[in-house]
Amino acid sequence: MTEDYELKDDVHRQQYEFRIGNYTPKIEYIKSINGEIYLTHTEVPRELEGKGIGSQLVEKTLQDIERQGLRLVPLCPFVAAYIKKHPEWRRIVMKGINIK
After folding, report:
1. How many whole angstroms separate alpha carbon 39 and alpha carbon 72?
2. Which range marks the domain in which residue 77 is found?
3. Locate the N-acetyltransferase domain: which residues (predicted)?
4. Alpha carbon distance 17, 54 (integer Å)
């Protein structure tokens, strides 16, 4: 069972992140003034791979995006793959965006 990590939104760096010891798994984003958020890149340090941390990071990020009422554009393949596995999250994806 993966530990439950606290999601931080580092607005200056434009990334959602966890702080785990010396490591910072993150999802980089770009927010538009029209209420869209583009998730561009997910990065989990090699030392933390395979522990479900990336999936937890995506899940908590999607929850925060939904809470803010933003429309999601998942440009990052990892995020898109997560949404494909968890299709209930399509509800926050911007209309007209196809997830392959």
Report:
1. 8
2. 8-92
3. 8-94
4. 10
Structure tokens at 25: 């798994």
Whether residue 36 lies inside any domain: the answer is yes
Check which CATH number belongs to the domain holding 69 and give it.
3.40.630.30
| C-alpha to C-alpha distance for 9 and 61, rounded to whole angstroms | 9
| Residue 20 in tokens | 């785990």
Residue 53: inside a domain: yes
Task: Convert the pLDDT of each residue in 41-87 to its tens digit.
Answer: 999 999 999 999 999 999 999 999 999 999 999 999 999 999 999 99
Q: Has this prediction a pTM greater than 0.85?
A: yes
Beta-bridged to residue 20, according to DSSP, are: 23
Q: How many domains does the chain have?
A: 1
Residue 88, C-beta contacts closer than 8 angstroms, at least 6 positions apart: none
